[in-house]
């Protein structure tokens, strides 16, 4: 039996992470020894300080990535794959410690954090397998007089930016394919959750990643540090996961140098339950789609549309489940509703619920923030939520399930598509014809059909409309980090 107390274990995992910048394979302080605090969202207390990079530190990280690009692109695909495979194994072997570290900085329940480490690890395993499958082509020109040779090459030095809600998986989803494709990179994790990424940098180094291939900078002068790097002209790719607002700004910055971009942005997922659905499965799926990550997910069910004949029974069952969810610090046994990331998140959720109430919605359970310490909001179910309420238009990013009844298929499709977002939609029905009909008419990059979870490293993740550009994962994920070059071959008779 372990003799280490839970508090000592928490301190030990935070202490075990190197908190400096990782540039050119070396850990180093930020310019002037500057640091920024990382908070525990469950207590509001400072967990530790990490390096706060300056503009010059950002440039040094880009210099290192640029310097390493040529040699890295020459490394055999099998060797790149082996590094990824070793990283996969190290993540899996250490998932308990890494999960605890993530819960400390981000707040999600320990079981979910450990699950995210496994999910992140799977990107490394998947792209270890993809590294050796980069293909090309050879074809006879249509007029028979020449030949086409098509080759795939790494895009080049890449800038990667990730959000706080999945501190390890969002990084793995970019670093995995970048390594597989032969790109070097500068990674900037969210300033609220830098520890998981710093731990990952250590693991990749241990797995044999050459110096300079991955550089990690942490900063809270984010715009000031990142913009010159993006505008510098040497990075050839920006892969961003975060809000649509910041994504738009970054697209503008990329325009000057016509940089390749991948944008994984916000969502406003409709969750549709038709009256022929298996109600038990629909409630279960709704709990997953709503409560994964305490509702702080781009894929979270944001608008729950239930056909009128079953809305009362569906709501009753959902309320029963939501009201019973244990709330508390993510490190406590059995907790499902952990703290939100910060006070601003609680204020936002409070505002959305109040607005819905003012417009006629009814609170079936929950409906308020919880007094501190920590940033807690009750698991909440609202019903009769009008389509024009703010909660139906903005990302909630909290444990609130807003239900709106509907009558017809056409009506629910129109409501589902009535948003600038188009990341994921969920459909519950037992009618295959309806499932396909509705799937084809939804403006969305992904659909969960009788399933409340779509994320899978082997599948193409991404959105349409203002939810983003490009796809991560699946067989297309590596393409985001590859350029296609065509050689026109003239044949002498
Ligand atoms: P965010 O505010 O857009 O921040 C995301 C990242 O961008 C952070 O690292 C942030 O750094 C950085 N950033 C902010 N301003 C920047 C600027 N001017 N220049 C360069 N970088 C900048 O989003 P968030 O609140 O962390 O994450 C939640 C959002 O991400 C939600 O909208 C969610 O839907 C979306 N998301 C999408 C997906 C997807 O796959 N589609 C997955 C997860 C999350 P700082 O932390 O230092 O501010």
TrEMBL record:
Keyword terms: Oxidoreductase
Oxidoreductase is among the record's keywords: yes
GO biological process: gamma-aminobutyric acid catabolic process
Family annotation (InterPro entries): Ald_DH/histidinol_DH, Ald_DH_C, Ald_DH_CS_GLU, Ald_DH_N, Aldehyde_DH_dom, Aldehyde_DH_Superfamily
Matches recorded under PROSITE patterns: ALDEHYDE_DEHYDR_GLU (PS00687)
Domain Aldehyde dehydrogenase positions: 27-487
Pfam entry (one): Aldedh
GO molecular function annotation: succinate-semialdehyde dehydrogenase (NAD+) activity
KW Oxidoreductase (keyword) present: yes
Cross-referenced Gene3D superfamilies: Aldehyde Dehydrogenase, Chain A, domain 1, Aldehyde Dehydrogenase, Chain A, domain 2
Active site: 264
Family: Belongs to the aldehyde dehydrogenase family.
Annotated protein name in UniProt: Succinate-semialdehyde dehydrogenase/glutarate-semialdehyde dehydrogenase
């Amino acid at each position: 039996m372990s003799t280490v107390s839970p508090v000592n274990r928490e301190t030990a995992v935070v202490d075990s992470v190197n908190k400096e910048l990782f540039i050119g394979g070396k850990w180093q302080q930020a310019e002037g020894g500057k640091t920024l605090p990382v908070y525990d969202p469950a207590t509001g207390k400072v967990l530790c300080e990490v390096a706060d990079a300056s503009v010059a530190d950002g440039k040094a990280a880009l210099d290192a990535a640029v310097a390493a690009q040529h040699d890295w692109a020459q490394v055999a695909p099998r060797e790149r794959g082996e590094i990824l495979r070793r990283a996969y194994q190290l993540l899996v072997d250490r998932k308990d410690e890494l999960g605890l570290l993530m819960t400390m900085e981000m707040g999600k329940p320990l079981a979910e954090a450990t699950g995210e480490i496994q999910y992140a690890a799977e990107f490394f395993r998947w792209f270890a397998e993809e590294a050796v499958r980069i293909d090309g082509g050879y074809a006879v020109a249509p007029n028979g007089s020449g030949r086409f040779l098509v080759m795939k090459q790494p895009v080049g030095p890449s800038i990667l930016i990730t959000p706080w809600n999945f501190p390890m998986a969002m990084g793995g989803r970019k670093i995995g394919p970048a390594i597989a494709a032969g790109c070097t990179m500068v990674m900037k994790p969210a300033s609220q959750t830098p520890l998981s990424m710093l731990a990952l940098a250590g693991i990749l180094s241990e797995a044999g990643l050459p110096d300079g291939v991955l550089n990690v900078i942490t900063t809270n002068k984010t715009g000031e540090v990142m913009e010159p790097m993006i505008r510098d002209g040497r990075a050839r790719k920006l892969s961003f996961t975060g809000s649509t607002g910041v994504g738009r700004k970054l697209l503008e910055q990329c325009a000057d140098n016509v940089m390749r971009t991948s944008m994984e942005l916000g969502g406003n997922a409709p969750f549709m339950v038709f009256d022929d659905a298996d109600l038990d499965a629909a409630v279960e799926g709704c709990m997953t789609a709503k409560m994964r990550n305490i509702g702080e997910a781009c894929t979270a069910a944001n608008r729950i549309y239930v056909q009128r004949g079953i809305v009362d029974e569906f709501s009753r069952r959902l309320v029963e489940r939501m009201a019973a969810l244990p709330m508390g610090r993510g490190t406590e046994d059995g907790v499902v509703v952990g703290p939100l990331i910060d006070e601003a998140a609680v204020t936002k959720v409070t505002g959305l619920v109040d607005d819905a109430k003012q417009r006629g919605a009814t609170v079936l359970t929950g409906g308020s923030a919880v007094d501190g310490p920590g940033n807690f909001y009750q698991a909440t179910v609202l019903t009769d939520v009008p389509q024009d309420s703010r909660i139906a238009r903005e990302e909630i990013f909290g444990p609130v399930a807003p239900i709106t009844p509907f009558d017809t298929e056409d009506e629910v499709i129109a409501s589902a598509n009535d948003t600038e977002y188009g990341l994921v939609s969920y459909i519950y029905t037992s009618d295959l014809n309806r499932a396909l009909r509705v799937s084809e008419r939804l403006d969305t990059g992904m659909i969960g059909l009788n399933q409340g979870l779509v994320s899978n490293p082997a599948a193409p993740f991404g959105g349409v409309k203002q939810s983003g550009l490009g796809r991560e994962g699946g067989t297309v994920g590596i393409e985001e980090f590859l350029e296609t070059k065509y050689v026109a071959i003239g044949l002498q008779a």
